[in-house]
Specification:
Blueprint (H helix, E strand, L loop, with lengths): L1 H10 L4 E4 H8 L8 E5 L1 H10 L4 E9 L3 E10 L2 E13 L2 E2 L10 E6 L2 E6 L1 H10 L3 H14 L6
Parallel strand pairs: 2-5
Antiparallel strand pairs: 1-2, 3-4, 4-5, 5-6, 7-8
Length: about 150
């Protein structure tokens, strides 16, 4: 499914990067991805919504929870849940963050069987998880860097 999405996004000039548990998995962290989370821009969120129309569970529109807001949509592709978040923001100390897009964070390309997939770098995931209180994910990333002998200052 990930390769299918990456190919579709490349063919239609969609701005995206993979985040969340799938990103961790693609970096080599021992997690079982629960879904595919796609960070994108507002325009690309609506483009993805059209491209994935046959798989739509929840149409893309601006949605807000107590801690997150974005142009959000949910899809089910070959039994895999796919969520898009355009211009994601999180709330901390009663203030919304600046919108997060593939342009505002560091990303890298990972080759999966011949298809290049854009993912957030681990340091970005770590910083985001720290900001929103996902300490377990921070610990996983710290352990991964320690195992690999990578000295990173967060």
């Amino acid at each position: 499914v990930l390769k299918k999405l990456a190919k579709l996004f490349r063919e239609h000039n969609v701005e995206y990067c993979i985040v969340g548990s799938t990103s961790l998995f693609l970096h080599g962290i021992n997690v079982e991805p629960s879904d595919i989370d796609i960070l994108t821009t507002k325009d690309s969120a609506f483009k993805i919504d059209k491209l994935l129309d046959d798989y739509k569970v929840l149409p893309c529109k601006f949605r807000e929870s107590s801690i997150f807001r974005s142009y959000f949509g949910r899809y089910r592709v070959n039994e895999i849940n796919v969520e898009i978040m355009g211009e994601l923001q999180y709330k901390k100390e009663n203030k919304w963050s600046n919108p997060i897009t593939p342009h505002t964070i560091r990303t890298k390309w990972i080759n999966i069987n011949g298809e290049k997939i854009k993912v957030a770098v681990l340091e970005e995931t770590y910083n985001f998880c720290r900001e929103v209180g996902r300490e377990e994910t921070c610990k996983l990333i710290e352990s991964y860097f320690k195992e690999k002998g990578i000295n990173v200052k967060f």
